[in-house]
Amino acid sequence: MFFVRTASREDLGKVRALLADAFHATYDALYGPQKVQELIDGWQSLAALEHRLDAPGSEFLVADDGKRIGGMAYAQRRNTRPETVILHQLYVHPDCHRQGIGRDIFAEIESCFPGADLMELEVEPKNEKAIAFYLAHGFEPVEEVTIETGPAKGLQALIMRKALETF
């Protein structure tokens, strides 16, 4: 059984390995293994992950069963509009799909931002499993954009949004 908790520095190596496995399983067929490795190296370095632990207005969660990290999520309030939360990452290890880990992580991350009224994310438009997951959790597609900066420059992204209950 996996329990959702806040990530620690000791988790980062396992989180990076999870993200590498999840990225290759999800995106190799779309972008090719070399481009996927570039994305991993650009976004998922240990330094980048460590920076997220202390980022203001953020939450970094893992699903842990005591032996391994089965999933993770990272979200942060938008600087220009703190009532909006950007869900930057929610990944479950490919071996752990269909166990409710994504659902549990999402339920926790959604509750971590009191006063927020909107959650937004970007997803690869061809990632049908992720889109189905987000639709099932109340997100709606808003627009498709071309990413303009960073390792994913030139790739497409579907922006999805969900209204949050404020408390």
Structure overview:
The protein is α+β, with helices and mostly antiparallel strands and 167 residues long. The chain has a single domain (3-163), classed as 3-Layer(aba) Sandwich (Aminopeptidase), CATH 3.40.630.30. 35% of the residues lie in helices and 32% in strands. The protein has five helices and seven strands, in the order βαααβββαβαββ. It has helices at 12-31, 33-43, 46-53, 101-110, 128-136; strands at residues 3-6, 58-64, 69-78, 81-92, 118-123, 140-146, 156-163. The chain has a seven-stranded mixed β-sheet with strand order 1-2-3-4-5-7-6, sandwiched between helices. β3 and β4 (81-92) form a beta hairpin. α1 (12-31) packs antiparallel against α2.
Short structural summary:
35% of the residues lie in helices and 32% in strands. It is of the alpha+beta class and 167 residues long.
The CATH homology group name = Gcn5-related N-acetyltransferase (GNAT)
Distance between the termini: 29 Å
Mean pLDDT across all residues, rounded?
93
Q: Which structural class do you get from the secondary structure elements?
A: alpha+beta
Q: Helical percent range?
A: 25-40%
What is the fold-level CATH name, i.e. the topology?
A: Aminopeptidase
- Shape, principal axes of CA atoms: globular
Biggest sheet architecture: 7 strands, mixed
Amount of beta strand? 25-35%
Spatial ordering of strands, largest sheet: 1-2-3-4-5-7-6
Number of continuous helical runs: 5
Task: Round the Cα radius of gyration to an integer and report it.
Answer: 15 Å
Name of the level-1 CATH class:
Alpha Beta
Helix and strand pattern: EHHHEEEHEHEE
Low-confidence stretches: none
So, CATH architecture?
3-Layer(aba) Sandwich
Number of separate strands:
7
- How many domains, as an integer? 1
